[in-house]
Amino acid sequence: MTVLASNLKPSGSQLLPRHVAIIMDGNGRWATARGKPRTFGHRAGVEAVRRTVEAAADIGIEFLTLYGFSTENWKRPEGEVSDLMGLLRLFIKRELSVLDKNGVCIRVIGDRSRFADDIQALLKNAEKRTANNRRLKLTIALSYGSRAEIADAMRSIASRIEQGELSASDVTEDLIEESLSTVGMPDPDLLIRTSGEQRISNFLLWQCAYTEFVFDEVLWPDFDRKHLEQAIENFAGRERRFGAVL
């Protein structure tokens, strides 16, 4: 196991975020800068995922959520989407045994019905196989959009009201949270976006109400443990007031 940087504290410390979410951006620009097709960047991005999961587990992060494929990404050229689906298949098949052995619990959020049957089966098997692992809870957002997630939650609650199971006065923030796909997970303490873009692109809108943001100029394929530690150090230097005056 890699030794923690001296100024990073183990799990449970106020200085270490319990839940880190990452918007992995910049694969296409990374490839273009090298005169390569965008798919070349996506392949390099898979290596960055591997490094980041390993680093997060070593550092002691409890929850890591990666924005892998948004609902908007389906609008990309057919060839690029096909290549991304191939990389998803390859990643699960190649990495599942290693992730399981290293105590990583996998969870997938998003509309997986849009994926091919074999990918749906791979995702279900990955979740089932790693369900009892506790070292790191890895959530991958695939075919995910936060507005759709919230709309689904509202439909679920509305249906329960129609059936007489709930009344309008029962609708609270806690009930909404229990109806989201992230139920059981703490809200992200820290959200990192690579590539220098400064927006959250329909990612965990409800959950990020009091999340600290770090926007890093590095393109995702170049992201490594050093960048993760720097973001955590940035987080550790902030005063989180959650709307209160301390």
From TrEMBL:
Signal peptide: none annotated. Gene3D superfamilies: Decaprenyl diphosphate synthase-like. Binds 2 magnesium ions per subunit. Substrate binds at residues 26-30, 38, 42, 70-72, 74, 76, 193, 199-201. Its cofactor is Mg(2+). InterPro entries: UPP_synth-like, UPP_synth-like_CS, UPP_synth-like_sf. Pfam families: Prenyltransf. Keywords: Magnesium, Metal-binding, Transferase. GO terms for cellular component: cytosol. The keyword Cell cycle does not apply. The active site is at D25, N73. It is an enzyme of class 2 (transferase). Mg(2+) binds at D25, E212. One of its GO terms (biological process) is polyprenol biosynthetic process. HAMAP family: ISPT (MF_01139). Belongs to the UPP synthase family. This is Isoprenyl transferase. It comes from Thalassospira profundimaris.
